[in-house]
Specification:
Largest sheet: none
Number of helices: 3
Helix content: over 70%
Number of strands: 0
Distance between the termini: 46 Å
Oligomer: single chain
Strand content: under 5%
Order of helices and strands: HHH
């Protein structure tokens, strides 16, 4: 089977939204870890400095995830532009959100 521009476009239509959803999931998971550390520290009555290094590292993780999200959004936009040029797409659109396993918007609404 030949790997064509259309094959790549079909794969990217699945893979880019999945990557975006994975970043959202990672952000939610690291937020849960932060909450657990702070709650455990408070409930156990330990000094506030306990776990501070871990919290600082998790903050860096979240910052990196935000940067990664910005970059994957740029890739997404570039893929749409490339599809319009090379696939002769009349309407370069993204797949419906139901095509990815995890719905990032629903997760964000749940915590809002």
């Amino acid at each position: 089977m030949t790997f064509t521009v259309f094959t790549a476009a079909a794969r990217l239509r699945r893979e880019i939204p999945a990557a975006e959803a994975a970043l959202d999931e990672a952000m939610l998971r690291t937020t849960e870890v932060i909450r657990t550390i702070v709650t455990a520290r408070r409930e156990a009555g330990v000094p506030p400095h306990v776990g501070q290094d871990a919290l600082l590292r998790l903050n860096k993780v979240q910052s990196s995830l935000l940067d990664a999200g910005s970059n994957i959004f740029r890739v997404h936009n570039q893929a749409i532009s490339a599809a319009a040029i090379y696939c002769s797409a009349d309407e370069p659109t993204c797949p419906p959100s139901g095509m990815v396993e995890h719905e990032p918007a629903a997760a964000l609404e749940a915590v809002a």
